[in-house]
Amino acid sequence: MSSNSHEEMIREDGLPGHESRLDPKPEWEPRYPGSGRLDGKVALVTGADSGIGRAVAALYAREGADVAILYLCEHDDARKTAQIVEAEGREALTIAGDIGEKSFCDAAIQQVMDRFGRLDILVNNAGEQHPDQDITDITEDQLRRTFQTNIFGMFFLTQAARPHFKKGAAIVNCTSVTMYQGASELLDYSSTKGAITAFTRSLSENLVKDGIRVNAVAPGPIWTPLNPSGGASPEKLAHFGESTPMGRPGQPNEVAPAFLFLACDDASYMSGQVLHPNGGTIVNG
């Protein structure tokens, strides 16, 4: 699928969604001063125009990293994230395109290397979801594009980045609580999240001997553009996150510290693991 056709199909669903149009606005601001945990590092964050990706980019920048911001088509949100990174005194690079296309991923990594000359952290965060009541409602195009974005894109970007990783590099993937609990209306999305968890564990085994750590974060219900733009009804949104033990949805800046921990040397003895910022839901794994 070409990036143009993917963008057109996504726009028909209202995805990825504008953070600038959300009310209330998600909370992305880092909660504490930086301590230099990513000084001199370069990070690439997919889906960094909004939501969890924006919060991760902001926190990484506060901790000293320059950030490449990959996103599909929400240019206004991406510009805002770039301004956030630059306000922290770091460099930002925005790259628009479809991570489901290998050629784009190859070109994006090359842009990062041309600009910064190194790549230390890859955050595979971008994803899409399309709620359906019944498995027969999932079209072939939807099934293909959900897998293409959510898991193929991780393979493509990791393949392109692999030759540039040195010892000490880190990959952090975004899976989901739906991988562990299931989600009756998110069959294709949840399936990709299961694949991401298996990808994380297997890639860790593959790369750990070279000093490259691979971990993942499995957020619970987090208030981001993915939810209202991903087909959730107003009624469902009114009670979004209430089923968690904490009784509320999480904010992006409550998830970003997990991505920071796994990317920095604080997690030097962790690989193949999954962290669970999910409002207190107990899962196995």
From TrEMBL:
<dbReference type="InterPro" id="IPR002347">
    <property type="entry name" value="SDR_fam"/>
</dbReference>
<protein>
    <submittedName>
        <fullName>Short-chain dehydrogenase</fullName>
    </submittedName>
</protein>
<dbReference type="GO" id="GO:0016614">
    <property type="term" value="F:oxidoreductase activity, acting on CH-OH group of donors"/>
</dbReference>
<feature type="compositionally biased region" description="Basic and acidic residues">
    <location>
        <begin position="1"/>
        <end position="30"/>
    </location>
</feature>
<dbReference type="InterPro" id="IPR036291">
    <property type="entry name" value="NAD(P)-bd_dom_sf"/>
</dbReference>
<feature type="region of interest" description="Disordered">
    <location>
        <begin position="1"/>
        <end position="36"/>
    </location>
</feature>
<keyword id="KW-0560">Oxidoreductase</keyword>
<dbReference type="InterPro" id="IPR020904">
    <property type="entry name" value="Sc_DH/Rdtase_CS"/>
</dbReference>
<comment type="similarity">
    <text>Belongs to the short-chain dehydrogenases/reductases (SDR) family.</text>
</comment>
<dbReference type="Pfam" id="PF13561">
    <property type="entry name" value="adh_short_C2"/>
</dbReference>
